[in-house]
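DUF427 domain-containing protein
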Amino acid sequence: MSGWPKPDKLSPGQESVWDYPRPPRLESFAGSITIELGGRTIASTDRGWRVLETSHPPTYYLPQSAFDGGVLREAAGSSWCEWKGVASYYDLVTDGRVAERAGWTYLQPTAGFEPITGAIAVMAAEVDRCTVNGEQVEPQPGGFYGGWVTSWVRGPFKGIPGSRGW
């Protein structure tokens, strides 16, 4: 895709990532979220947060209490987000599998993102399965960003070939 993308057409009940703001917005989420790894559900909650940013599917953050004991192992390194600040990482660990640096958190997020202090987001591509309201999500394309694609979110999405300049 060259140039600026044309937003996908919407059906009733859908939202466009091209209507999301930049800088991104944090909003509370009330609904079912699950994460599976190594043949078991390692996290489950009925509340969390979504970060909504132009051209990106939502990134979901779960309270740390949503994760089973022992599945979070602090991982080395950090990264910087221009909007949220310094991210710390977790390996996700079960008896059957380790997903290295598949989870991340902001321990001291920037102004406006304080509600997600210590909450954890997960790279859907690095685990067996993630669901939102019972629907299995697709990872955001490209392998770099942490958004979760569901049937009610339309793109095109940052991360597809040709989207670098968006």
